[in-house]
Specification:
The complex is a heterotrimer of chains A (about 325), B (about 575) and C (about 300).
Chain A lengths: L1 H28 L3 H5 L6 H10 L6 H14 L12 H36 L4 H15 L2 H15 L12 E3 L2 E3 L4 H34 L2 H8 L4 H39 L4 H10 L3 H29 L1 H4 L4
Antiparallel strand pairs in A: 1-2
Chain B lengths: L15 E11 L5 E12 L4 E5 L6 H9 L7 E9 L2 E3 L15 E4 L3 H4 L6 H12 L4 H14 L5 H5 L8 H13 L5 E5 L7 H18 L2 E6 L2 H7 L2 E6 L2 E7 H6 L4 H9 L19 H16 L8 E12 L13 E12 L3 E5 L6 H9 L6 E6 L2 E3 L11 E4 L13 H11 L6 H14 L16 H13 L5 E5 L7 H18 L2 E6 L2 H7 L2 E6 L2 E7 H6 L4 H9 L7
Parallel strand pairs in B: 3-8, 3-9, 6-7, 7-8, 13-18, 13-19, 16-17, 17-18
Antiparallel strand pairs in B: 1-2, 1-4, 4-5, 9-10, 11-12, 11-14, 14-15, 19-20
Chain C lengths: L19 H18 L1 H4 L40 H37 L1 H15 L3 H15 L9 H29 L2 H9 L3 H38 L10 H9 L8 H27 L8
Helix pairs in contact in C: 1-3, 1-10, 3-4, 3-6, 3-8, 3-9, 3-10, 4-6, 5-6, 6-8, 8-9, 8-10, 9-10
Classes of the chains: A mainly alpha (about 325), B alpha/beta (about 575), C mainly alpha (about 300).
């Protein structure tokens, strides 16, 4: 198992190197940082000075090395748009996105898992078929359509819930949280549902497929031949077997939820990293784009590794070698 | 060993009494498929009763019906079942009032898939007990320990905490047997309990089952297709064909002098271990075209068999070694290489059938794959008609060697019509002048293997396993080879079909003079087919001799052991 | 040895027995395809003709509402464009981009997957590593990056001519990995089957084996993936357009229209966003229904040997 972790680490390092390379290429070659940062009427001499002060006249590999060391030190440059350090901007926005993603994940699991199990146990029932159809609709609706629809119904028509922003937040240490205020919580509802919907249907369909698969396996058949009661077989045995791949998929989904949050944050004007990224894209604010890429790439790699480790821990076939 | 001849009422109620059992599957279009019809069966305490038949006979259906495992929409349409004198209610089409696991124990074929990979042995043994007998945790554990000891598992305390993948195949099946015994049932249904196991392990498990029947007075319904197993441990046997019982009675009588014609065919088809017969005594299904076609094929092979056959040896293998592994995940981390084949040497003479036999894992399949060029050897060489061959063969030799594989269901490209699959190699090697000739050659091949020409117009899925294997053999003959490699060609087939295919191979070899390397784990089959035999164990050849000599007077201890362990009819 | 299970029961000769929902879905898809590609012929006006924009008739409600104008079936947008025409053209571009992305991804993915599965070794490792790196980034992110980079490099990228190509590339760059992985796995399964081993022993060349024997047998999962992928690709394109980095307002896709309409939702002008959204969801849903049915139909566990 140590060897497996070792190869995973190597893979993670490779991925990070690739990601930093892309980020570096973006920084260096896309657009002209000098032109973007100097005044309109700067003289060639001033531009040359700016260029060398930015280190842009040194060999490419040296620049890449410098880039990587800066990244490791936490210096991701300044935003073109407002000249503030990118790291600061990211740190400000991080709590908003993470809280949203966390609530959305919990929601997706809390609803998707039971629904999936239910549909697997009675696949031909009327309710199960209805849920299946609805789930098809669920994965056919783009996130932004869901968001707009929810806003139309709950904010514009019914006026129950706020439609944009995060509400009031409380500063705790370096973190800002919306969990502790009423407006913070109500503002969280619609965006969380929007973000959760796609993932919820995915989880539901996956759990259903896995359960049906497991229920037709030999060892479940053997358990039936031993006369074990149905609810024991379904919930204590089959569910356990079916949940294994679900763990992997959910873990990976958290990463893509962070990406999907971009859309949700745009619709609801939620002040998270996703909104920051979109604004950077439309302004061609390369440092912010590159930094977001690095951060998300890093997060993905960490999550992937964590998922692998967790999987190795819960699957006895991977955990212990044969005696 | 108590047995009661059919018809004599025994004083104690039989453990199992089935009368007129009929199982049906209503189909979507309103008709009904009858999987079992009017089955009568009786098992006394301590009796092992074998239920025998080929695919589709209905034997598994009867077993499933007893255990309540009939897959919907199958149901019991008629008949009565009584366990230990208690009649079971079957009006609902399923068994009611009897509890599987408590009153009936079950043993399935494949222990790897019967046990849940995510739960320990203890958990799987105890859950049945705690549910049915309401035992506390410690009580259940103690009982589990004693059961493990009863089935012969060493160090039971350690094994309790283990997961299924940490046990060997034989140990897993012992655990399965233990779990069948947990609630002291009167009846055990064993569905092909040793088919997935090695010969030596099989012998141990059979002995275990026999011992359990004797010691505990449990009645065992042994569902199997292997007549040797029946001869080895069963007291009485019932033979089924297409859902009906055709013969039943004490094992010794039925196997020595069967009455029903099908029973005679079935038992006759079992390859004998004691003497080699010229052909296996099964009725041939081949038509009048066959002989003509075979003569045509013979002529073709003689004319364009690609080896100038002056040499006496067609194939020679010298000091062949194949290693796997040996590379760690990162450079510097070394894994130990595994020697699948260790200095194997033998030759195949022109026109002979050479047998390579051994248990699973002995390396015989690796040898076959290496000779065929599918695997790279790490040392040693293979020569075909004197020329060295490896992953690629020099052009004139390319079609000289062909192969027939074990699984007929994956041996044919599902998307190619049969005629096309046969014509392709003929066209590829330009053995025919034009397309019409190629098509004619393909048709001849089909007839030569006992099928009709029209079979060429269909796709593989339209054929049975035996027919597909015939097509595979025809395809192997299409490039007009001089040497045929057969890797377990009949191991996946029913007994009677196996006999037909073996006869086919014998006929072809006799008529065309083709040399064959025949690989199998089944000693009886090898006895019937081969002129000379090599026995393999652990990657090495332990004995190589004439078939007659090897079987009559084996010299190596392992050969002797293997021969003694094989369950066979001759031991009756 | 084979038990009579429900699966082995002989079935009646299969007519084209499609469930009702699937037939409806196919009809819907057919109608949409036709309408979208016949757009230049059946649309009352040309929404891409900038000269025709009539700001005087902007933001008019649909014809069936009290103060609607009968000329405009579904109302007009903020530029005075007829929404019905805009939706027709928008659907066309959405389908084109989605279909284009699937085509590119499938071709690339199937080729690489075949090679990886058949040759194994270094080729396999290389292709899979690249795929892993690409998969570490979510589709949306990758697509956004590509679009954003394209814009940063050249402002022309935002124009109607280049945007479709960039969008196709942005979506396909992530999608091909899925095809490659599936085809690789299927190829490895087929390659271990005896008919492929037989083909090798017969002496056929590797190319011949890959193309004539393996490829036809691995295509069915590809078709299933392609259909489901089409839906996902259309959604991705719509999302990108909604975020502002997709099709520009001068040649709007359904996503762009929704983006435009989003700003008017609060002032009661609901139709600009709603109708395109409805059309988009119905289209994607229909494709998903077909894809789902295909997946069940081609499920290897349900087909007889």
């Amino acid at each position: 198992m140590i060897a497996a972790i070792g190869s995973r680490l190597m893979q993670a390092v490779l991925v990070m190197l690739a990601v930093t390379a892309i980020a570096f290429v973006m920084f260096r070659y896309v657009g002209d940082p000098v032109a973007m940062m100097s005044r309109e009427d700067a003289t060639p001499a001033e531009k040359a000075e700016l260029r060398s002060s930015l280190g842009l006249d040194r060999p490419v590999l040296v620049q890449y090395g410098g880039f990587v060391t800066r990244v490791l030190r936490g210096d991701l440059g300044n935003s073109f748009r407002n000249q503030r350090p990118v790291v600061e901007l990211l740190a400000e926005r991080l709590p908003a996105t993470l809280e949203l993603v966390l609530v959305a994940t919990l929601l997706a699991l809390a609803v998707g898992l039971p629904l999936g199990v239910f549909c697997a146990l009675k696949p031909d029932g009327a309710i199960a078929r209805a849920i299946q159809t609805l789930s098809l609709v669920g994965i056919s609706m783009p996130t932004f359509v869901t968001g707009i629809a929810l806003i139309l119904v709950f904010s514009v028509t019914l006026r129950w819930l706020p439609s944009f922003g995060r509400g009031d937040v409380v500063h705790v240490g370096g973190w800002t949280t919306g969990f502790l205020t009423w407006t913070g919580l109500t503002s969280l509802i619609l965006p969380a549902i929007t973000l959760a919907l796609y993932q919820l249907t995915l989880i539901m369909r996956l759990v259903r497929a896995e359960m049906i698969d497991v229920l037709s396996s030999d060892y479940i058949r053997f358990a039936k031949a031993r006369g074990l009661p149905a609810h024991y077989i379904n919930f204590r045995l089959a569910l356990r077997n079916a949940l294994m791949p679900v763990v992997t998929v959910t873990g990976l989904q958290i990463g893509s939820l962070i990406a999907f949050a971009i859309v949700t944050e745009t619709v609801f004007q939620w002040p998270g990293m996703g909104l920051l990224f979109i604004q950077a894209v439309s302004f061609a604010d390369v440092p912010v784009m590159a930094a977001y890429l690095l951060f998300v790439g890093f997060l993905f790699v960490v999550i992937n590794m964590a998922v692998d480790v967790i999987y190795a821990l819960i699957d006895p076939r991977l955990r212990a070698r044969s005696t | 060993m108590s047995s009661s001849p059919l018809g004599t009422p025994s004083r104690k109620a039989p453990v199992l009494a089935i009368n007129g059992l009929t199982v049906e599957y209503p189909l979507a279009d309103g008709t009904r498929l009858t999987a079992a019809a009017d089955v009568d069966l009786e098992i006394a305490a301590g009796e092992i009763h074998a239920l025998v038949g080929e695919s589709g006979a209905g034997k598994t259906t009867v077993g499933n019906a007893l255990m309540g495992l009939l897959q919907a929409p199958g149901k019991i349409a008629a008949g009565s079942i009584a366990i230990d004198g208690r009649v079971i209610d079957t009006r609902t089409g399923r068994i009611e009032g009897i509890v599987p696991g408590r009153d009936i124990g079950a043993i399935f074929q494949d222990p790897m898939t019967s046990l849940n990979p995510l739960f320990t042995v203890e958990s799987q043994l105890c859950e049945t007990m705690r549910h049915h007998l309401r035992l506390g945790r410690d009580e259940a554990r103690d009982r589990a320990l004693s059961l493990l000891r009863a089935v012969g598992i060493p160090e039971p305390e350690r094994r309790l905490k283990a997961y299924p993948h940490q046990l060997s195949g034989g140990q897993r099946q012992r655990v399965v047997i233990a779990s069948a015994l947990t609630c002291d049932p009167r009846l055990i249904v064993a569905d092909e309990p040793t088919t997935a196991l090695d010969v030596s392990v099989q012998a141990q498990i059979l002995k275990l089952i026999r011992g359990l029947a004797d010691d505990r007075g449990v009645g065992v319904l042994l569902v199997t297709h292997n007549m040797g197993v029946v001869a080895e441990i069963a007291d009485r046997v019932t033979i089924m064909l297409r859902g009906r019982v055709v013969e039943t009675g004490p094992v010794a009588k039925v196997l020595r002098s069967p009455e029903h014609p099908y029973a005679r065919t079935l038992i006759g088809a079992v390859p004998r271990l004691d003497v080699k017969t010229r052909r296996l005594p099964v009725p041939s299904e081949e038509g009048p075209q066959t002989a003509k076609a075979r003569e045509a094929v013979r002529r073709q092979l003689a004319a364009s068999g690609s080896i100038g056959t002056t040499a006496d040896e067609i194939l020679s293998v010298s000091k062949l070694c194949v290693e796997y592994g040996g590379h760690g995940l990162l450079p510097g981390l070394s894994g130990k290489p595994f020697r699948a084949v260790d200095e194997v040497s033998f030759t195949v003479r022109k026109g002979e059938i050479f047998g390579l036999v051994g248990e699973s894992g002995c390396g015989k399949t690796t040898v076959a794959n290496t000779i065929a060029g599918l695997v790279r050897p790490s040392a040693g060489e293979v020569r075909l008609a004197g020329n060295r061959i490896g992953a690629t063969r020099p052009a004139p030799l390319r079609r000289a060697m062909q192969m027939v594989f074990q699984d007929p269901y994956s041996a044919l490209n599902p998307r190619l019509k049969v005629a096309k699959a046969l014509a392709e190699p003929i066209a590829f090697y330009r053995l025919a002048a034009n397309r019409a000739e190629a098509t004619e050659d393909a048709a001849l091949l089909l007839e030569a293997v006992g099928l009709e020409r029209q079979a060429g117009e269909r796709y593989p899925h339209a054929f049975s396993g035996g027919q597909r294997q015939r097509i595979a053999i025809a395809r192997a003959l299409a490039p007009r080879p001089s040497f045929l490699l057969c890797d377990e060609p009949t191991s996946s087939l029913d007994v009677s079909v196996q006999a037909q295919i073996l006869n086919l191979l014998k006929d072809i070899s006799e008529i065309t003079g083709l040399s064959i390397l025949f690989i199998s784990h089944d000693l009886a089959v090898v006895r019937q087919m081969c002129n000379r035999v090599a026995v393999m164990k652990g990657g090495r050849i332990v004995e190589l001799a004439d078939a007659e000599t090897l079987f009559a007077a084996p010299r190596h201890a392992y050969t002797r052991e293997l021969l003694s362990l094989v369950p066979s009819l001759e031991k009756l | 040895m084979s038990a009579v299970t429900a699966r082995n029961l002989p079935r009646r000769r299969a007519r084209l027995a499609l469930p009702v929902s699937v037939m409806v879905a196919l009809v819907v898809v057919a109608i949409m395809l036709f309408a979208a590609f016949a757009a230049p012929l059946i649309a009352p006006t040309d929404p891409t003709d900038v000269g025709k924009f009539d700001l005087m008739s902007s933001e008019l409600p649909p014809a069936f509402m009290p103060d609607g104008d009968p000329r405009y079936l579904l109302g007009t947008d903020n530029q005075g464009r007829d929404l019905f025409s805009a939706i027709l053209y928008g659907a066309r571009i959405s389908i084109l981009i989605g279909g284009g992305a699937v085509l590119v991804a499938a071709t690339l993915g199937v080729t690489l997957g075949l090679m990886a599965g058949f040759f194994g070794g270094f080729v396999d490792a290389l292709i899979m590593r690249i795929g892993d790196v690409i998969l570490s980034l979510p589709t949306i992110l990758l697509a956004l990056l590509v679009s954003g980079l394209a814009r940063a490099i050249s402002p022309e990228a935002a124009t109607a001519q280049w945007a479709p190509i960039i969008l196709i590339g942005a979506i396909a760059i992530n999608e091909w990995v899925q095809y490659a992985r599936t085809v690789r796995a299927a190829t490895m399964v087929e390659a271990s089957k005896d008919y492929v081993r037989a083909a090798r022993v017969i002496g056929y060349s590797p190319i011949r084996i890959m193309l004539r024997h393996i490829l036809p047998n691995v295509m069915s999962p590809v078709m299933v993936i392609a259909t489901i992928n089409l839906a996902a690709a259309m959604l991705t394109e719509a999302t990108l357009s909604f975020l502002g980095v997709g099709m520009p307002p001068t040649y709007p896709s359904l996503g762009t229209l929704i983006r435009i309409g989003n700003e008017f939702v609060f002032s009661g002008i609901w139709w600009i966003a709603t109708f395109p959204a409805l059309v988009l969801v119905v289209l994607v849903l229909a494709v998903n229904i077909v894809g789902d049915w295909l997946r069940d139909r081609f499920n290897p566990k349900l087909t007889r040997r």
